[in-house]
Amino acid sequence: MHGTIDGFNYGAVTPVVAYVMACLGSALGLRCTIRSLRTDTSWKPGWLGLGAAAIGSGIWTMHFVAMMGFHVAETPISYDLRRTVLSLVVAIVVVGVGVFIVGYRGATRAALLTAGLTTGLGVAGMHYLGMAGMRMNGRLEYSPVAVALSILIAVVAATAALWAAVSVKGFLPSLGASLVMGVAVTGMHYTGMSGLSVRLHESHGAQALGGASAVSIMLPLMVGPLAFLLLAAVVVMFDPILVLGEGEWTAPAAPQAPKAPADDWPEGFGAAYPGTTAHQGAAAHQGAPVHQAAAAPQGAAAHPAGAAPYPAGAAGSPTAYDRFGGPAQPQPPHQQPGSARPSF
């Protein structure tokens, strides 16, 4: 006799939350793997390990969140603690193998095929190892077609995720890759569950043999992976290279337009120069006539050669100072009066 299976005992809550957890773990893992490619050798293993742990924790959390909605009407379900924890270790280790291969070998064809196959088989193994940890008054039976299809999806999804981890640059492209990865991982889970059936034992109504109830074991176990994912998210948020990406972080600053020269001279000097704005303002304030530099008519010099605009010591001649407070030095002919401001 087969049991009545309900994979959505809580409606759409469990598949949606499971998908979110898969996307979160994939996004953090991809960003950490990308970060490992732009750091020195000493920090590279740390970033790769953090990325592998994030992806593995996200996949494992997705699996057991989805399993909280799994229900068999004729028998209660419990879980074996050791196999459940072992499935988490397997998820992190096999993902780590694939991440380290592409992290050090790059996105070559051989590296991607090897890493994708290893990681995909490991993810599928995590799924079926977690299912083997279930305890109920019945036996799980799988459709070979559904199992093969779920393994194929896991391998393709793992290969695509590892390729994206070393090839996709920028925050938004990697975010899109993580959303696709979440669809693939969640799809792998529910594809395998679609071919599942439960053959009940003869003793109907018997309690689940050994283990702990689903809620009592999975909720405490998920606290650790969830806390780790939050910690990894904090690391990503406080690393500008992870958030902005290579292009945005290393782009040169936009050139600034040159500033226009100041209209007035520094305070205390501008009033000493005839023809400047400060001099005109000071003269107007004191009621004195403003000295305007006379323009020399064409073909004629304004003053005899070598003569100064004002006779030396003549009354009313302005006293000129340079910008440092000393007497002004003679200026070249092209800088003689006629310009609005003296040059130095």
Index terms:
elongated; mainly alpha; 55% helix; 344 residues; two-stranded antiparallel sheet
What does this structure look like?
This protein is mainly alpha-helical and 344 residues long. It has 9 helices and 7 strands. The protein has helices at residues 13-36, 44-67, 81-105, 109-132, 144-167, 171-194, 214-237, 240-250, 277-286, and strands spanning 5-6, 71-72, 78-79, 134-135, 138-142, 196-200, 212-213. The chain has a 3-stranded antiparallel β-sheet. Strands 1-2 form a two-stranded antiparallel ribbon. A two-stranded antiparallel ribbon has the order 5-6. The N and C termini lie far apart (104 Å). Residues 204-208, 246-254, 262-273, 275-310 and 312-318 have low confidence and may be disordered.
The DSSP helix count reads 9
Evaluate the radius of gyration.
39 Å
Percent range for helical residues?
55-70%
Strand % is 5-15%
In N-to-C order, the SSE pattern is EHHEEHHEEHHEEHHH
Structural class: mainly alpha
